[in-house]
């Protein structure tokens, strides 16, 4: 990413994600004008929900039904997907697989019970490479029944945009060259935080990082905190882990609980080849008084993920294609096991409750973030031991990894690369659970 003159100014002019706590909500997609560049550098005419991009932060209660009406005020058909939520198949929001796309002017009533607490997000799943790039997404938080003891619960969405000097979206959503490489990258990046958040030194914060970019893998450094990672892709770690180097593939989330050590700010930095790129900061002023806090404990676990690795069915999934990958161009530039896009028949049918062991092999020169709908999976270590539970896993060029999931959610589930340009160009398939 090239630093441009206006890139240096950060911290000001953060978008104001609205917060809504209702379990019955309307999300209305339509054109919005957003202040993505710093104030004074021009506004961006784009798309959003309920008048803003990102859309409102939805906070749902674990185990309680949420009713969300989607109204499509866009000029394109659309649908909303509740990323990472293990919900009923008919509510998954995938046009062509679980529902018809909602036409312009149409609406769709979503209704589901989120079984797992954690950090999720919602986004368009129709022409997602364009609609997500334009801003049809928002955070989806499922609250624990007993939330951890923190002073602030802060959502941090990292995104990039391709903008002119004065803030116009530069388009190129369907660019085939981008799709055959790493995807469509923005030239301007930010960490989006509610500008009302004010921290004091010594306070304990929960940070919910979400990578909402269509294609960019974000390394992120956070300055001014000392703490632990407590969850990945919404799912609590059995034991909090050191923060280390944070890397977020598109759609991945990381929850951190930490104490504020910075005296002036908590800063988000994107280390690039050209040096550190400032994504934004949360201001810190004053010092918290009161007794020191205890250790950072693990979050309460979510229900049911007992793998039966002995009896697991093996599913090879080889990623192929891309520039110099020897495949065709257009919509089949990428493939799984030689097949681009969805066939009539699923890649595999599972009995309900069966453990599946996917062997992901990245036989390309590009990284891919592979996402399974309707389920979380364990990343298996080199010794085959189950590691973290995730819904999206990053597979570096030439690398392979095994993931295992209990396929216990009946229906038709997409399995795709979350680099949305890769998905558009064929890197997607589906599986079925009886
Ligand atoms: Cu985040 Cu198929 O989606
Ligand atoms: Cu990909």
Largest sheet: 6 strands, mixed
Unreliable segments of 5+ consecutive residues = 1-18
Q: Could you name the CATH topology of the largest domain?
A: Immunoglobulin-like
Mean pLDDT over the residues: 93
Number of domains: 2
Helix amount:
under 10%
Tally of DSSP helical segments: 3
List the ions, cofactors and other small molecules found in this model.
CU-O-CU linkage, copper (II) ion
The fraction of residues assigned to DSSP E strands is over 45%
Features:
2 domains; binds CU-O-CU linkage; binds copper (II) ion; Immunoglobulin-like; 6-stranded mixed β-sheet; mainly beta; 434 residues
Q: What's this entry about, in short?
A:
This protein is mostly beta strands and about 425 residues long. It contains three helices and 31 strands.
Commentary on this structure:
- It is built from three helices and 31 strands.
- The chain is mainly beta.
- It has a six-stranded mixed beta sheet with strand order 11-10-13-18-15-16, with no helix packed on it.
- It is globular.
- The termini are far apart.
- Residues 1-18 have low confidence and may be disordered.
- Residues 368, 417, 419, 422, 427 line the site of copper (II) ion.
């Amino acid at each position: 990413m090239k630093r441009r003159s206006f890139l240096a100014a950060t911290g000001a002019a953060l978008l104001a994600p609205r917060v809504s706590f209702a379990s019955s909500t309307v999300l209305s997609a339509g054109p919005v004008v957003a202040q993505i560049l710093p104030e004074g550098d021009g506004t961006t005419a784009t798309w959003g929900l309920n008048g803003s991009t990102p859309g409102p932060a939805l906070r749902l209660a674990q185990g309680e039904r949420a009713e969300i009406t989607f109204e499509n005020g866009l000029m394109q058909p659309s649908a909303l997907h509740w990323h990472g939520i293990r919900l009923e198949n008919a509510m998954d929001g995938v046009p062509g697989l679980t529902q018809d796309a909602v036409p312009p002017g149409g609406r769709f009533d979503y209704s589901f019970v989120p079984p797992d607490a954690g950090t999720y997000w919602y986004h368009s799943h129709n022409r997602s490479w364009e609609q997500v790039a334009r801003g049809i997404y928002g955070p989806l938080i499922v609250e624990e029944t007993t939330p951890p003891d923190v002073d602030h619960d802060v959502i941090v969405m990292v995104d990039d945009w391709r903008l002119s000097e004065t803030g116009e979206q530069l388009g190129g959503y369907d660019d085939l060259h981008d799709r055959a490489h790493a995807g469509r990258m923005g030239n301007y990046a930010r960490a989006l935080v509610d500008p009302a958040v004010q921290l004091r030194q010594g306070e304990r914060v929960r940070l919910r990082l979400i990578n909402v970019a269509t294609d960019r893998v974000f390394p992120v450094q956070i300055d001014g905190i000392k703490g632990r990672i407590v969850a990945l892709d919404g799912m609590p770690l059995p034991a909090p882990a050191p923060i280390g180097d944070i890397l977020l593939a598109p759609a991945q989330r990381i929850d951190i609980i930490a104490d504020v050590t910075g005296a002036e700010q908590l800063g988000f930095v994107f280390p690039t080849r050209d040096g550190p790129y400032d994504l934004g900061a949360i201001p810190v002023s004053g010092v918290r008084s009161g007794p020191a806090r205890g250790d950072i404990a693990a979050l309460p676990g979510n229900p049911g993920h007992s793998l039966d690795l002995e009896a697991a069915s093996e599913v090879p999934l080889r990623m192929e294609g891309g520039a110099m990958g020897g495949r065709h161009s257009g919509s089949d530039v990428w493939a799984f096991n030689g097949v681009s896009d969805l066939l009539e028949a699923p890649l595999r049918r599972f009995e309900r409750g069966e453990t599946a062991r996917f062997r992901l092999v990245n036989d390309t020169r590009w990284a891919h973030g592979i996402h399974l709908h309707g389920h979380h999976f364990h990343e298996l270590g080199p010794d085959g031991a189950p590691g973290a539970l995730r819904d999206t896993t990053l597979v570096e060029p030439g690398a392979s990894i095994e993931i295992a999931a209990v396929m216990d959610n009946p229906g038709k589930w997409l399995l795709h690369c979350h680099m949305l340009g890769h998905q558009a160009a064929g890197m997607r398939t589906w599986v079925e659970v009886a």
